[in-house]
Amino acid sequence: MSHPQRAAAFISDAERTTWHDETLWFVRQKRDKAVYGIPEFQQLRQLASDIKAHTLSRLDEYLEQFERNAQANGVTVHWAADAAEHNRIVLELIRKAGATSLVKSKSMLTEECHLNPYLVKNGIAVVDTDLGERIVQLREEAPSHLVLPAIHLKKEDVGETFHLHLGTPKGEKDPQQLTEAARQHLREKFLIGEVAITGVNFAVAETGAVVVCTNEGNADLGVNLARVHIACMGMEKLIPRTADLGVFTRLLARSATGQPVTTYTSHFARPAEGREMHIVIVDNGRTRQLGRPDFRNSLKCIRCGACMNTCPVYRRSGGHSYDFTVPGPIGAILSPNIDLHKHSSLPFASTLCGSCTDVCPVKIDIHAQLYKWRQLIGEQGELPATKKLGMKLLSSVLARPGIYRLGGKVAREGLRFLPHGLTHAQALNPWAKARELPAAPKQSFRDWYAAQVK
Amino acid sequence: MKVGLFIPCYIDQFYPQVGIATYQLLEKLGVKADFPRQQTCCGQPMANTGCEQDAKPVYRHFVDTFSKYDYVVAPSGSCVYHVRKHYDVVEQTGAVQHVRQSTYDLFDFITTVLGVTELPGRFPHQVGLHLSCHGQRGLHQANESEMTPVREGQLSRLLRSIDGLTLTELNRNDECCGFGGTFCITEEAVSARMGQDRVQDHLLNGTQVLTGGDMSCLMHLEGIVRRRQLPMRVMHAAEIFNAALDGVARTSVRVGLNDANGTTEERPIKVTI
Ligand code: SF4
Asked: 4Fe-4S ferredoxin-type domain: from which residue to which, for each copy (chain A) (predicted)?
């Protein structure tokens, strides 16, 4: 299925679409309010973008520096070329620790690598400890948003899920009650967790430390109770210095939810006495993206989700319509790098309105990259044949004024004289499902001009 | 000043009144525009579909058609944005560079080149302005809500200057309408829903006349207004100004010449009744 088909299915529930759109728009408005309050916000964006550009331009050096410093702190650093290697490394570490269960705080990377199903298949019990993540995990769904993984669900849906899995009373939908139930449930899991996996928001090259931002404190709790901490990170998460961190923490929470800062900004530099800390650095297509000058900037992403909240298409089609770990505008420019064929409809799931580019805290030119992916998809023959042929034909007409004039006239006269039932037949003309065609006038502009203006 | 008028294909065939209003409005502001008959399209439909390569002959034809003018003016911010931004894939000859720099959206031309920021005339209706994304975020003709809460722009300023005209205060000032070129067909469901939501915002806030600077957005929105038989008229802003200027008692507007000294000059408004 392509994006339009999945989107149409989502939209067929008009009420839920309204609710989804309004919920995310509310987050966008909170972001706006926070942004308007910071006079230097646009300078901050530029600075963040520049720091990331600099880091990406010498990523190899920073990665090595980071590894050296992490090792000096007593951390074991592992390198994974792809998702499979990442998963193998993590499983091996768990086995070495003699563990059979683990707790995991929010990590889009492990989602990207499909770590959960892999571990479960290998007999490891995995519990996601971020509330939203836990909800979608219980439902065996993928997250539908970077920051708000269960945003596609209403409180009634969550009540249903918790009734089924956590034994809350049927029909319970009070967020307070549901959260409390999740809290108690997760407490137990935290206490028996032998291994804790966390994601990484920022990795500081000069110190070898990793920084994890959460609102629930679940990363800290997990790590502090477990004997082994495994931090999994994409190789683009680096920043050069601790001094750079403030630029990003100021931008991240404001862009994501309109908060001045995330509730917890946890720094993990070294293992505590008698414990282990591992960092797995993953490539999984990032080097390839780094090698594409037109798309390199997409690696600046700090996963704030602002481009999703602002995207008029995302808000009305839902995260699952993208069928990729990272949905929304940023997903639409990351996914073709992974599998151009499979995701070829995503760069077209946009009007190129440019709002994503304007909210992005690291100034990724998202809509320009969407346009460029479209060209690559066209060149690599991944466009539907009818589309390609139609465009070739159109082009040959538009480069020939004579045929063009005739064609325009035929279209207008056709619209004037053909019966409404035919011109608006929904099977032939998708435009007409929800819209009238323009009323065709008797005379074109060029005819008027020729008659009036000498 | 030689001004070439670019009337995009769908305006030429389906909205000739917008082309006529553009021509007459410019005339009232003292600019006699020329409409070169061999013009076709800017090539955007192909390029946005991923067929930029196929669009190159169309780009060259556009440049050949318009390079002899000092300015190219179009009542469509989207086409203008395309020429300025995306004609970078053909060889940058002098002609190409000239056309890219001198192609203007009608209201950008009126505001920036002619220096007109206020217009006389009367239009006693509540008008809802739909900002086209390419005009706003692409050509920076209006502030963006992503950056600032101040809702200000070339077109809203011109509209506000018209006597009797009130502008609708929208809940979402600059949300995209969902037209998006071929997007309106390939993503029909999302496109229609976006358009319906946009129209609803105008309806809720009292818009009687829905307007904008880009006829492609308006064609899509008008399709929804007419399908739902809503009590709302859709007009391109050129039509509003052209109508408002008809019957204007004043015979001139003050026009800035955009030179280093900030010189201004009275220009006659030729009223065509
Ligand atoms: S692309 Fe920009 S706006 Fe979107 S998630 Fe990444 S950092 Fe945030």
From this structure: 291-321
